[in-house]
Amino acid sequence: MSYRWILRMKRLVQNPPSEGRVKLVLGIILLCILLYLAERFIGWPDFMTSEPLGRRWKP
User: Fold this and answer.
1) Has residue 21 been placed in a domain?
2) How many structural domains are present in the chain?
3) Which of 15, 28, 35, 56 is least surrounded by Cβ atoms within 10 Å, i.e. has the fewest?
4) Above 60 in pLDDT, residue 59?
5) What is the span of the domain harbouring residue 37?
6) 26, 25, 7: which is closest to 15 by C-alpha?
7) Phi, psi angle pair for 6, to nearest 5°
8) In a domain, 4, yes or no
9) What is the distance of C-alpha 19 from the center of its chain?
10) 11 φ, ψ to 5°?
């Protein structure tokens, strides 16, 4: 662990993030988990699947 990370941890301990910031980060993590679970159990919709176009540039 580098000295820079130790300084970052020290700064977080001295000035912890606000309650709103913690809720925001946890909400984003929860949203990502829900999207993953929905994709895993329900499946990926066909309209969101892209079709490969092949090579666009030919010399």
Assistant:
1) yes
2) 1
3) 56
4) no
5) 17-41
6) 7
7) -65, -40
8) no
9) 20
10) -65, -40
Q: What residue type is assigned to position 5 of the chain?
A: W
**Measured distance CA(28)–CA(18) in Å, rounded:** 16
The gap between the terminal CA atoms of the chain, to the nearest Å, is 48
Q: Supply the pLDDT for residue 55.
A: 67
Sign of CA dihedral 25, 26, 28, 32: positive
pTM over 0.85: no
Calculated CA dihedral for residues 16, 8, 29, 44, nearest 10 degrees? 160
The pLDDT tens digits for 3-57 are 999 999 999 899 999 999 999 999 999 999 998 998 888 887 777 777 776 666 6
